[in-house]
Amino acid sequence: MKKFNILLCLLFLLGFFVFCAQRQTVRLKVLQLNLWIQGRIVPGGVGGIIDIIDQTNPDIVFLCEIRKEENNPFIDNLKEELKKRNKEYCGRYMDQGVTVLSKYQLTNVGSPFTLENGSRPVCKATLEIGEKTLTVYSVHWDYTHYECYMPRGYSGTTWKKIEAPADNADSVLIANRISYRDEGVSALLKDAKQETEQGHIVILGGDFNEPSHLDWQADTKDLRNHNGLVINWDCSVMLHEAGYKDVYRELYPNAVTHPGFSWPAGNQAAPMEKLMWVPDADDRDRIDFIYYYPDKSLTLKEAALVGPKEDLCSGEIVDGKTQDHFVEPQGIWPSDHKGVLATFELCTE
Q1: pTM of the shown model
Q2: How far apart, in whole angstroms, are the C-alpha atoms of residue 228 and residue 266?
């Protein structure tokens, strides 16, 4: 009887391992990065872009601030240099400021909508991994009316000092909504709903030029020149209400200990006059994001900021001394932003 029980246990374990082996999974790394005009502002910046993609080795890359130039060879050159390092990516210049690179073949690449101001702030693409279809969106929302400056005593339109820091959240939001950011998110959500209804996995990332409501609540109202305000910023609220998950806040929900500042980065290699917009205010914010729509096949495993640990604060490069998780560049940092890196586990069956 004892031998029989041992045999049953062995058969059970064998069946379990066979089942696990049949569950095909892959690690999926996604990088989001603002290139700061294709790395042109920082000496050696283009090489820095190549280096950080090589270092982080993402499967999908969301890029923004690509120059809109005729016959722009930047993306082709980027892919060629990465190929020399045994990293092959699909993707192309889309005659707009955003694009997607992927180690997987991309199909249906295009701009899903054009906003009323004529901008095309989104690049959409589809890729297949095993039996799963992923729809990805690289975004760069309107930089105008950057009104998280108002509580800090500056205009987000002229970037000049105002008479007094804003002390009313509603007035800030009214000014903020003059931008086309909320219209962009609304259009994206409408498009992405059609994808999720087909069972497609949706991941998006980019420079939002707007903070997250998760970072402007009661616990931070007296920090970072928020001037006592709790502000439910539109773009993140819309995504949250539609069910989307902010990868960094999913793993690091405490905005005090893990603020996740992505702008302005404390880039020692950059000209200070190019980095600094408000010389006497703490304008650090998390405005670069990766979001995903929950799916039983997709599990978030890791999230990190990519870039220098230092920030620009009140006109000086400072060590923020936060508990944030970083991937620090081994070479030159090319941007005034920090990027975001997310690692998922994807069941491909």
Answers
A1: 0.93
A2: 25
